[in-house]
């Protein structure tokens, strides 16, 4: 049986954070959710608020934090390009200063800390699929750099704190993840296409639609995060977590249109700067270290997500 712990989740009111808080509470842990509500929503954690094991702190992780916890999941950071590019300086600070503050707390407590890093550390990758040994291809001064370079710098701090102070760290490189609790105006491709298809609005493909991504359903991702946290102290990562099933954005648009039964037109818009051409995780390391592979296929995960957005839109009408 697992021992109940007190666990800090930064970004706990966001898409992944709220799903993680819910899962940790189900496993009988106490959860301290820290969020500044930049992209998070109170509605994401509404059902958790009455749980006596759940505590919410409205706090920006760029400011140092004192708390008594056994483990830290550092998820705070806007993840959608439209959101992280809205206030890029704040994004870079959240990634770097925020990570330093959480590392200082982990060091003080000798607590285990997991960093939600990203496939964006590989940039527009020249190696495909991406393995953890690939150092990436990132534009350091482009519009995505506040996020990509911020996350890369956070990884550097994680490993330097580890080398210097020897408390347990885990670095997880998360690939595109989707599912319930993404917001209606999230801006990321699956949320956007589903909302457009349900509303009968044009589905907006950026570029020619031949760029690829590989999408992981949220429950699979959360399962992997907890398994990585539970590895012994010798395992630091970085480890890729994602679903290797790769699809073009044009095919994704078509699939969502069909699953929704929508008559939406398809419209092509300019491709944003530095948009990666292809992305797919090599998950051999995750498979060998934590015995994990995703179990929800894209079709099934999209149906669950469509049903979620359908209810959200109905509530908003
Ligand atoms: P999200 O935008 O839904 O959630 C981020 C949360 O962090 C929000 O609740 C936001 O209010 C909060 N936040 C932002 N800045 C903060 C600050 N300075 N202090 C406190 N809280 C702050 O994004 P998400 O999809 O849930 O992503 C969570 C984490 O996972 C992020 O670190 C992201 O980089 C990483 N990640 C996500 C994906 C994905 O596909 N979802 C892929 C790669 C990495
Ligand atoms: N995209 C798109 N239409 C949209 C939103 C995104 O064609 O309305 C494309 C985007 O250009 C990218 C892919 O979908 O090639 C994934 O975008 P997202 O923002 O979800 O994630 P990221 O680019 O960070 O992987």
Report strand order across the widest sheet: 3-2-1-4-5-6-11
The profile of the biggest β sheet is:
7 strands, parallel
The amount of helix comes to 25-40%
What's the CATH H-level superfamily name? NAD(P)-binding Rossmann-like Domain
The CATH architecture term is: 3-Layer(aba) Sandwich
What's the total helix number?
10
Structural class: alpha/beta
Say what the CATH topology is. Answer: Rossmann fold
Which CATH class is shown?
Alpha Beta
Number of domains: 1
Q: Give a count of the beta strands, DSSP E runs of length 2 or more.
A: 13
Rg value: 19 Å
Ligands bound, unique: nicotinamide-adenine-dinucleotide, uridine-5'-diphosphate
Binned strand content: 15-25%
List segments where confidence is low: pLDDT < 50 over at least 5 consecutive residues.
none
Overall residue-averaged pLDDT value: 97
Shape: globular
Along the chain, the helix and strand elements come as EHEHEEHHEHEEHEEEHEEHEHH
Straight-line distance between termini: 45 Å
Outline the fold blueprint.
Blueprint: E1 6-10, H1 15-26, E2 30-35, H2 42-45, E3 54-58, E4 71-74, H3 81-84, H4 88-109, E5 112-118, H5 145-165, E6 169-174, E7 177-178, H6 189-199, E8 203-206, E9 212-214, E10 216-217, H7 218-229, E11 239-241, E12 246-248, H8 249-260, E13 266-269, H9 284-290, H10 298-316
Parallel strand pairs: 1-2, 1-4, 2-3, 4-5, 5-6, 6-11, 7-10, 8-13
Antiparallel strand pairs: 9-12
Nicotinamide-adenine-dinucleotide is lined by residues 10-11, 13-17, 34-40, 60-62, 75-79, 94, 98, 116, 118, 174, 176-177.
Commentary on this structure:
With 317 residues, the protein is α/β, with parallel strands linked by helices. It has one domain (6-179, 217-243, 275-295): NAD(P)-binding Rossmann-like Domain (Rossmann fold, 3-Layer(aba) Sandwich). Helices cover 39% and strands 17% of the residues. The protein has 10 helices and 13 strands. The strands form 4 sheets. Strands 3-2-1-4-5-6-11 form a 7-stranded parallel β-sheet, with helices on both faces. Strands 7-10 form a two-stranded parallel sheet. Helix 5 (145-165) links the parallel strand 5 (112-118) and strand 6. The longest helix has 22 residues, at 88-109. The radius of gyration is 19 Å and the shape is globular. It starts with 5 loop residues before the first strand and ends with a helix. The mean pLDDT is 97. Residues 10-11, 13-17, 34-40, 60-62, 75-79, 94, 98, 116, 118, 174, 176-177 line the site of nicotinamide-adenine-dinucleotide.
């Amino acid at each position: 049986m697992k021992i109940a712990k007190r666990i800090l989740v930064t970004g706990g009111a966001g898409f992944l954070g709220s799903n993680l808080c819910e899962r940790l509470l189900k496993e009988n842990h106490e959860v301290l959710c820290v969020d500044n509500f930049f992209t998070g929503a109170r509605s994401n954690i509404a059902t958790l608020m009455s749980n006596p094991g759940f505590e919410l702190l409205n706090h920006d992780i760029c400011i140092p934090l004192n708390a008594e916890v056994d483990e830290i999941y550092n998820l705070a950071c806007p993840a959608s390009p439209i959101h992280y590019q809205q206030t890029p300086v704040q994004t870079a600070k959240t990634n770097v200063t925020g990570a330093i503050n959480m590392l200082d707390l982990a060091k003080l407590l000798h607590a285990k800390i997991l960093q939600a890093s990203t496939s964006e550390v590989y940039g527009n990758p020249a190696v495909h699929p991406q393995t953890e040994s690939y150092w990436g291809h990132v534009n350091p001064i482009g519009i995505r750099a506040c996020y990509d370079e911020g996350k890369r710098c956070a990884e550097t701090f994680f490993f330097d704190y580890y080398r210097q102070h020897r408390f347990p760290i885990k670095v997880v490189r998360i690939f595109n993840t989707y599912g319930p609790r993404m917001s209606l105006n999230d801006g990321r491709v699956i949320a956007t296409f589903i909302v457009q298809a349900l509303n009968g609005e044009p589905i907006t493909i950026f570029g020619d639609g031949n760029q690829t991504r590989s999408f992981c359903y949220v429950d699979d991702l959360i399962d992997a995060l907890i398994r990585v946290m539970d590895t012994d102290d010798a395992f630091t990562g970085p480890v890729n977590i994602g679903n290797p099933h790769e699809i073009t954005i044009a095919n994704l648009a078509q699939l969502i249109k069909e699953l929704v039964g929508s008559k939406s037109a398809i419209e092509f818009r300019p491709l944003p700067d530095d948009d990666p051409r292809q992305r797919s995780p090599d998950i051999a390391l995750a498979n060998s270290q934590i015995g994990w592979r995703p179990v929800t296929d894209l079709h099934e995960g999209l149906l669950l997500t469509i049903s979620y957005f359908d209810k959200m839109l109905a509530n908003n009408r």
